[in-house]
Amino acid sequence: MTSQVDDHVIELLTVAENIKLTKIVKQITTRLSTSLSSKNCLEIWKCANKYGLDQLSASSLAIVAQNLHGIIAAGDFVKLEDDEIKQILVCERTDDLPEEHLCSALFSWVNHDSSRRKDSFSQLFEALKIELLPKSYLQEIAKKELVRTSTSCVSSIIDELATRIPDGRGITVVAIPSLFLRFVLILKGNVLK
User: Fold this and answer.
1) What is the sign, positive or negative, of the torsion defined by CA atoms of 93, 94, 99, 105?
2) How does DSSP assign 106-170, residue by residue?
3) Which pTM value belongs to this model?
4) Per-domain residue ranges for the chain?
5) CA–CA distance from 176 to each of 139, 161, 163, 182, 187 (Å)?
6) Is the pLDDT confidence value at 6 over 80?
7) What is the pLDDT of residues 129-173, one digit of tens each?
8) Distance separating the N- and C-terminal Cα atoms of the chain
9) Which of the residues 8, 47, 94, 99 could staple to 132 if both were Cys, CB 3.0 to 4.6 A apart?
10) Per residue in 56-66, is it b (16+ CB within 10 Å) or e — as a string?
């Protein structure tokens, strides 16, 4: 392939897939697999998902997972669809991106188109590894409207904070009957000082 064609490999794949040129699709898929990089992994992953190219999708998602910091910094994360965000959140991530940065990116993703995306937030929040979030960050995000208005998000945060109470402390969050009261205690900082 020439360098001019290299710039249009994904377009060629689209045409070849649409007119069912299986041999060409296979050749292009091989070419894309060998040229995966941090700069093109997101675009290739989306294309592989669109055409059901499972092997290419898996290998490009692995590169996406290694480069989340750059993808978020470039502003590409907010352009993803909710099913794509979920795939990223549940995949085995090998980058050194702190979970709170990914959580912040999720809030940015929702705010980028809140009227359409706020309904997806609770489900996506559940896919985060909240056990990796610092206590202070959990308490901070518990104050955000997206979290406050979601019973499942509030419950997840409360449950996670409850696991961090040292034995013998004399207070157990799960013993407080009202979800609202437990939430208020966390917001006020009276739990887990």
Assistant:
1) negative
2) HHHHHHHTHHHHGGGHHHHHHHS-GGGS-HHHHHHHTTSHHHHT-HHHHHHHHHHHHHTSPTTSS
3) 0.74
4) 1-66
5) 18, 13, 14, 6, 15
6) no
7) 999 999 889 988 988 999 988 989 988 988 888 777 665 454 444
8) 62
9) 99
10) bbebbbbbbbb
In this model, does residue 176 exceed pLDDT 70? no
Q: Pull the structure tokens for residue 71.
A: 């993808």
Q: How far apart are CA 175 and CA 121, in angstroms?
A: 28
Least confident among 15-24, 87-96, 128-137:
15-24
Looking at residue 193, the DSSP 8-state letter turns out to be -
Dig out the tokens for 42 from the structure.
């997101």
Rg (CA), the chain: 21
Q: 70, 68, 73: which is closest to 93 by C-alpha?
A: 68
DSSP 1: -
Centre a 10 Å sphere on the Cβ of residue 103 and count the other Cβ atoms it contains: 21
- Determine the residue type at 68: L
pLDDT tens figures, 67-80: 888 889 888 999 99
Q: What is the DSSP letter of 174?
A: G
